[in-house]
From TrEMBL:
The gene is rbn. InterPro entries: Metallo-B-lactamas (IPR001279), RibonucZ/Hydroxyglut_hydro (IPR036866). Coiled coil: none annotated. GO terms for molecular function: 3'-tRNA processing endoribonuclease activity. It comes from Sphingomonas dokdonensis. This is Ribonuclease BN.
């Protein structure tokens, strides 16, 4: 699972998911971490702390905000075993590659997943495209990329910026995520290129 957003519990219920192999945090902003307490129920289902991975700075910020989750508190055991997120790792049958992405004054973790001959990239909360990111996201079956709004923003890509990256990197399919209220689904579908679409809650992709 990537990140623990505030509605993580409802998302897992809707998807009928009761356990996860691991959690990867892209960065520490509230909309990506504030569902972390609901990992306690997964801890109880597993019978051991949930495996968690984050880059060094993100991990330090998570520990500062939620120390009890990782260290326990007042007799309550830790619910997450937090480890450093390396540039490459394998979870189950999924090979994962990671790069650091600019996100305003901080960085987020960019992720590429590969399994059974399929590839999927996840690039949320970014404010630019680096050579490392370009190498990570080339030749993808599916790329999920941040596209906050039509107007420029200091820490997120706007729509035309995201579309220019999609055109350059040429994934076989692309989904737009992290959109604000100004990004109307029907209006976007009427103007987006083939094989590009806005994502929506509960969406499932098959690769």
């Amino acid at each position: 699972m990537v990140d623990t957003g505030p509605d993580m519990r409802q998302q897992l219920l809707d998807a009928d998911v009761a356990t996860v192999n691991a959690v990867i945090w892209t960065h520490e902003h509230a909309d990506h971490v504030f569902g972390i307490d609901d990992l306690r129920q997964i801890y109880h289902r597993l019978g051991h702390p949930v495996h968690g991975f984050a880059r060094a700075r993100t991990g330090a910020e998570l520990r500062a905000m939620f120390g009890y989750v990782f260290d326990g508190h007042h007799g309550y055991p830790p619910t997450v075993d937090l480890q450093l997120l390396p540039d490459k790792l394998t979870i189950g049958s999924i090979a994962i590659r990671v790069v650091d992405q600019p996100h305003g004054s901080i960085t987020s973790a960019g992720l590429r997943f590969e399994a059974a001959g399929a590839s999927f990239g996840y690039a949320t909360d970014i404010s630019g495209m680096t050579p490392d990111m370009q190498a990570l996201y080339e030749d993808l079956d599916l790329w999920i990329v941040d596209a906050l709004r039509r107007q420029p923003h200091p820490t997120h890509p706007h729509l035309s910026q995201a579309l220019s990256w999609i055109e350059e990197l040429a994934p076989r399919r692309a989904g737009l995520t992290h959109m604000d209220h100004s990004m109307d689904y029907a209006a976007l579908m009427a103007m987006l290129p083939d094989a590009v679409a806005p994502c929506h809650d509960g969406q499932v992709f098959e690769l």
